[in-house]
Specification:
The protein is an alpha+beta fold. The protein folds into two domains: 64 residues, no CATH class; 91 residues, Arc Repressor Mutant, subunit A. It has six helices and five strands; from the N terminus they run βββαββααααα. Strand 2 and strand 3 form a beta hairpin. Helix 4 crosses helix 5.
Length: 187
Amino acid sequence: MIFTRRPQRVLYYYWLDANFGLMYLRLQTYFPYTMQVYVNGHDWLARQMTHWGLGFVQHDNAFVELDHPQRLNNWRIASKKRKKRTYAGFNPARPDHAQLFRAVLSGDHLLRGFYNAQIRQALWGQHLSADQRRRQARKVTRLLKRLHLRGLLAKIPPTRRWPVTALGQQVLGALVQLHYHGLATAR
C-alpha cells in the first residue's frame, strides 16, 4: 500500500451579501465534506460605520481615514475566541526523544506500521501496572500526534496503526544520527 497525496476538487461559491459584503463558501467534494465560510470583516465594519453615520475612506481592504477614530476605540467587535492548541517541538539532544525516534523507526514496523502499545513497550517495558499503562498510553498518543502533525507519521484509517512517512524516515533517521554523533551532550 502506497500513501500519496492526490489532488482533490474543491468548490467555491461567491456572493455579495447586503449585511456582510463579500462572502464565499469553500466546499470540499470528498469525505468528510468540510465547509468554510469566509466573511470579510472590513466590509461588514464599513457597512456598520455607514449605518452609524461615521465618515471614512476605504482603499481596497484598509481604512485610510476615519472621521471619529475615538468613537471606534471604545467599540469592540464581539468575537468568539478560539483556543489554539500548540504542540511542543522535539529536541534530538534529549535521550527520551531520541529513544522515541528509535522506537518509531524500528525495522519491525516498516511494512505494517506500529501500535501505541508497541511504542509504549519499547520506551518503558512491559512491567507496568494497569494505571501506569493507561498513563503511558496517553503520553505515547500525545507524542505520536505531535509527530503526525509534523508529517512524520501517517494514520492508517480503519486501524490504529501508524506507519512512518518517507519524510519521517529521513528526518527521524537524521535526528537519531545527530543524537549519536555529538548532540547527546547538548541541552
